[in-house]
Amino acid sequence: MKRGRHGESSRHRSHRLSWLAKKTGRDHGRALRLWKTGTRDVRVLAIYTADPRQLTPEEARRWADDFDSWEIVDTAADLFLEAGLDQLIPEFAEDDREFVRRTAFAMIAGMAVHRKTEPDATLLGLLRLIERHSGDGRNFVRKAVNWALRNIGKRNLDCHGPALALAERLAMSADKTARWIGKDAVRELTTEKTLERLRRKIGSIAGGGKK
């Protein structure tokens, strides 16, 4: 577990800031002002208290210009999804800045888990971005690309097949980063635990949601 200033873990810090955000409530104008402080924890609080209904693509782009840590990126990615800024995914994926590109794949990873009613075709269409950027060896990009691929594959059986096929193809790549992404995804997507969970999802749907 990573620890920051005063020995506080990132998880505990996140919980503290989440609690503070719930107490103070959403205020979009205040969130924009908090972001301008440039302080990491204050910026996390800005993300938590921004109003997704008011967040514009241009505001998201300005924030992305300042991204400098995975924690900020992954928290902001959830907000961008909640705000419906899906159009930023391909744009951010093509941006060569490490943390901006990570944002695209963190958004894909989040979409695969949290957008329950999103058509599977949307996620499957994003596999091309995963393949396109699977050779980016920068730590925070390759981990996010891998994360996105695994989450799509674990979404349901319909997504599992295409995601696993891509993972297997990447695992055979001559590129070492793509090969790592593929092998790691294949490993997780073929475990009995993953397959059993996917089968239970089918059973749950067939039973009308009852377990």
Automatic annotation (TrEMBL):
**So which residues are the signal peptide here?**
none
| One Pfam entry name | DNA_alkylation
The source's superkingdom equals: Bacteria
What CDD domains does the record tag this protein with? AlkD_like (cd06561)
Name of the protein this chain belongs to: DNA alkylation repair protein
Lineage start: Bacteria, Pseudomonadati, Pseudomonadota, Alphaproteobacteria, Hyphomicrobiales
